[in-house]
Design a protein that fits this description.
about 35% helix
Length: about 160
């Protein structure tokens, strides 16, 4: 049974803890959908001030909605479009302080004001992205980026 931990309030240390929790959740499970579902739930419970946490999987040249927590979302995103498609195309994390200023932003939830998208790799190929939205401007910083990139690396070993 999973129990929510009491986090310290020190963001870097809390990411270390959540990444340990992720390992414990997925280490004995081989089903990728189950692992993505638990990973999105874990982050949704861990992160403050977020309104959407989920995955888009790269299939047939586009991103397709995977497991998530939050309001219903856009099902398909074209390569290079929006924040998710840009992260896929550039093969790097994209952190957006104000989504309303991001050219071509795809608004699945009008409450979202900032966003971070991190690619997920398997065998040096991107297989999807981790997408997190916040209703606050400037929600995500470098510490979040590092913690989420580590989270995505751990997860990629169990997909």
């Amino acid at each position: 049974m999973f129990q929510k931990e009491a986090y310290t309030g020190q963001v870097a240390k809390d990411y270390e803890l959540v990444n340990k929790q992720l390992k414990a959740l997925i280490e004995d499970e081989s089903d990728p959908i189950a692992n993505l579902a638990n990973a999105s739930a874990l982050l949704y419970q861990f992160l403050d001030d977020v309104n959407w946490v989920g995955f888009y999987l790269y299939k047939n040249g586009e991103l397709v909605l995977g497991p998530f927590q939050g309001l219903p979302a856009c099902v398909r995103i074209e390569y290079g479009k929006g924040v998710c498609g840009t992260s896929l195309k550039e093969k790097q994390t994209v952190r957006v302080e104000n989504v309303n200023e991001f050219p071509g932003h795809i608004a699945c939830d009008s409450a979202s004001q900032s966003e971070i998208v991190t690619p997920i790799y398997q065998n040096d190929e991107i297989t999807g992205v981790l997408d997190i939205d916040s209703p606050s401007l400037n929600r995500f910083n470098e510490t979040d980026q590092k913690g989420l990139e580590d989270f995505a690396r751990i997860l990629s070993n169990h997909l």
